[in-house]
TrEMBL record:
Localization (cell): Membrane
Residue numbers spanned by region Disordered: 108-132
A single cellular component GO annotation: membrane
Keyword Membrane assigned: yes
Name of the protein in question: Uncharacterized protein
Membrane topology reported for the UniProt record: Single-pass membrane protein
Family named by the database record: Belongs to the UPF0389 family.
Species classification: Eukaryota, Metazoa, Ecdysozoa, Arthropoda, Hexapoda
InterPro entries for the chain: DUF1075 (IPR009432)
Length: 132
């Protein structure tokens, strides 16, 4: 539809007998509705239940609005990111605690490195003695 036809159409709608502004409603056929729908797989069903959109796994329909699915995925991304942040912080706290315990016993990375190099040197000297 070109611009001139759209202007004449709007004028005809605006000058209706009721005097009210009746804008035309856009008719969406079933095909355009299905374009905005998303077929849900098993993992996405779980996402929809975990994010609280549906109460149980059985309530989730086969097709869900694309907007609802995107909101659910975004909420799951946020939840996973938050749990990973907490796990990282917990891991750091555990490593700091273990490092302090090792320092109290007198163990250090430098000491372990020296012992490892001494062991390798002893092994290589033993092998050279065997071959000679």
């Amino acid at each position: 539809m070109n611009y001139l036809n759209s202007l004449t159409r709007k004028n005809n709608v605006l000058s209706s007998s009721t005097g009210l502004m009746n804008f035309p409603r856009f008719d969406h056929n079933d095909h355009s509705r299905l374009e905005n729908m998303h077929k849900v797989n098993n993992l996405e069903r779980r996402f929809l239940v975990w994010t609280g959109k549906f109460k149980s796994y059985g309530e989730v329909p086969d097709f869900v609005s694309q907007v609802i699915m995107e909101k659910s995925r975004n909420r799951m991304r946020i939840k996973v990111a938050n749990y990973m942040i907490l796990a990282t912080i917990a891991g750091c706290v555990v490593m700091v605690y273990k490092g302090k315990q090792d320092a109290k016993r007198g163990e250090s990375v430098a000491k372990q490195n020296k012992e490892w190099h001494a062991q390798i040197k002893a092994d290589s000297e033993a092998k050279t003695k065997e071959t000679s």
